[in-house]
Amino acid sequence: MATTRVPTRPPLHADRAPARRTGLLLAGWAVTALALAIASPAAAQEGLGDPPELDALVAFDRETSDLRIALERYQADRGALLRRWDVPWSPIRRDRMRDFYRGWLERLGELDFDGLNAEGRIDYVLLRNRIEFELEMLDQEEIQAEAMSPLLPFARELEELQEARRDRIRRRDGRTTADLVDRVAGEVEALAARVADGQTAVAEFGSPTGVTAVRAARRVRLLRRILSGWYGYYSGYDPDFTWWVAVPWERLSGVLGDYAVRIEARGVGDLASGPGIGVPIGAEGLRAHLDHEMIPYTPDQLIAIAEEEFAGMEEGLVRAAREMGYDDWREAQEAVKNLAVPPGEKPGVVLDLEQQSIDFLEERDWITLPPLAHEVWRMEMMSPARQRVAPFFLGGEVIQISYPTDEMTHEEKLMSMRGNNPHFNRAVVHHELIPGHHLQGFMTSRFNDHRSMFRTPFWGEGWALYWEILLWENGFPRGPEDRIGMLFWRMHRAARIIFSLSFHLERMTPQEAVDFLVDRVGHERANAEAEVRRSFAGDYSPLYQVGYMWGGFQFRALYEELVESGRMSARDFHDRILRGGRMPVEMVRARLTGQDLSRDHEAAWRHREPGSGR
């Protein structure tokens, strides 16, 4: 199935019919009647032009948060402290950051909350919620560090080497340092010997779970990297240090690496996991993260709703398969996978789908589309190595296309093509570009960017998934093949909630998650393995995979509350969300509804219950 590249679309102009120019710039920000009265449709559209209408932006700035500068100061000071106190797991760093967070909470308590403007009250609640979460994460870190201590009795002595360097000690005595490094190397060698060849269980060291062992292995590797920087600071520059410490350091570096491998292998065996997968955070960890994201649901409630959605997607697949003449939806899905375009033609598919998405949005006047946003997005091809972790498209201002290259194995090529066929892509391109991640990034870098510290997958991924839902409901799929492709992704997002929460509750292993994606969703096995690896590699929030579908549900419920009720136009609704900046969706709702917030606001918005449907 070949595709034809369409001509480049001309720029989107601001001189369209009045219906195309109705985005309210100031109303996108303020919840007060005064702001709604001041804003003008022309100013809104001109304020997004190239060059922008500066009067509109000046007026807009006058209505932004009273706490904007305070939040910028908080981010700058926090970042500086973390760069200065750069030894993770160190009790000294924990104490310093606790002092920092508690100081800010005290200052917030002294602030006249009622005297803040509406946007300032939003930022107050967001910052207080963030600081309370940071303090709880420090408490959990301390508990985890204590659990690891029998496995890492040497850690503090080594951490203090780096801390002493950061304390600007003028010079270290070479022989004394060499004595310490060589002695600790011997201690680590002895510990490694005790866990070698299955002779001694990790639990004998006082660590009862594989989770703790794997976490300890990661801490050892991190400490080794930090110490490499410590050693490099002196080596070659301080002759006394170099002469004494070079050989002991080489020994210590080697035994630390060996020890990490050995304790991780034992812990991984307990977890039935695999190296680099990550560790479950448990029910208490999930509770803390859900509170931070302002999600007033338990993990079990989220899983139950995801299972309902999953069943509904299966029913939709059965109907689409019958339209294609198949009794089994898996056979129909296989037929759709085999409609992949030849190598080299994938960029044309992306261009086709991007233009179709733009046309679909413009015909319905759903959202302001800045001409510059359309002009500046770009395409790149993803490397084979990157595809092993991210087997599907990634997006933003640059959409990264996942498709086979000549150096892949034959099996890898076929799996990449089948998993990225045009009908599966129908839910991917607009998710990554417009109105999804690219438009999000374009707008949030220009409006309320001080709220970037409140970024959350429920806002980021939820927004893009919400558009998959809205476009689906309004006829974007053109036939059963498109519906099968879009339903594949909807099932995948429901599956992500199920397997990620189950993993963190220690009810499902990574291998079981892979099998679930292959057997129940229809993934190619290599793609499923990459997805699970990406989900648990430690680079994402433990709720990242939950954020897609659940955030989409939140935005869809808010659309029903404000747009389908007639209280707001779709265009105004979408524009105000993007110009408001990143934050938990409960706070988006507070902004758009003008909710009277209290300084101690807690999450309470429950828009769906298990068994109730949408």
Please compute the radius of gyration using only Cα atoms. Answer: 27 Å
**Strand fraction band?**
under 5%
Oligomer status = single chain
Unreliable parts: 1-44
How do the SSEs run, as a string of H and E? HHHHHHHHHHHHHHHEHEHHHHHHHHHHH
Biggest sheet statistics: 2 strands, parallel
The outline comes out as: globular
- Helix content percent band: 55-70%
Count the beta strands: 2
Structural class, by secondary structure, is: mainly alpha
Q: What number of structural domains do the residues give?
A: 4
Question: How many individual helices?
Answer: 27
User: End-to-end distance, in Å?
Assistant: 37 Å
> Please, what is the average pLDDT?
87
Could you give the order of strands across the largest sheet? 1-2
